[in-house]
Design a protein that fits this description.
154 residues, mainly beta, twelve-stranded antiparallel sheet, 0% helix
Length: 154
């Protein structure tokens, strides 16, 4: 099953972006208006592992199977936050590069907060360079992390 994944704070969807110059890595963008028929807006959620009796998932792009990763960090925003930019790739040399996420359900259907396995980082839309928000794993947030809506896609 495929999903459109929407950030409820920013009303933006996760979208597979252009391949970067490093080769094999894609930007993962956030957009408010998307063509829901476009495969780059659709994501598949896979149960990855069971960690201490908790289901953990990975997310891959419907268009080419690229998996979300967070190995481009951490970068520091200030003394209180650690930030890892989320990208996607189909070139996984090690299983550990996959972004394994724990989905914490809210009281509303299909709305989740997503955390790293150790719950130290949360999936968030974060403004790194004051130009636009990027999909990141963020640690040290003082408020609740972003909530994400999973909309079923055709």
């Amino acid at each position: 099953m495929y999903y459109h994944i929407k950030n409820l704070r920013t009303n933006q969807y996760i979208v597979l972006g252009k391949m970067t110059l490093e080769g094999g890595y894609y930007n993962v963008d956030l957009k408010s208006l998307i063509n829901k028929e476009n495969a780059s807006t659709k994501w598949e959620i896979h149960q990855s592992i069971a960690f201490q009796d908790t289901e953990v998932h990975t997310i891959s792009a419907a268009v080419n199977g690229s998996v979300l990763i967070d190995n481009f960090g951490p970068t520091k925003k200030d003394n209180n936050l650690s930030i890892k930019i989320v990208n996607a790739t189909y070139l996984l040399y090690e299983e550990k590069n996959k972004l394994n996420l724990y989905f914490s359900s809210t009281q509303q259907n299909n709305i989740y907060r997503m955390y790293s396995v150790d719950k130290a980082f949360a999936l968030s839309a974060y403004n790194i360079n004051d130009s636009d928000e990027r999909l990141c794993m963020v640690s040290g947030l003082s408020e609740l992390p972003d909530a994400w809506l999973l909309e079923e896609a055709a």
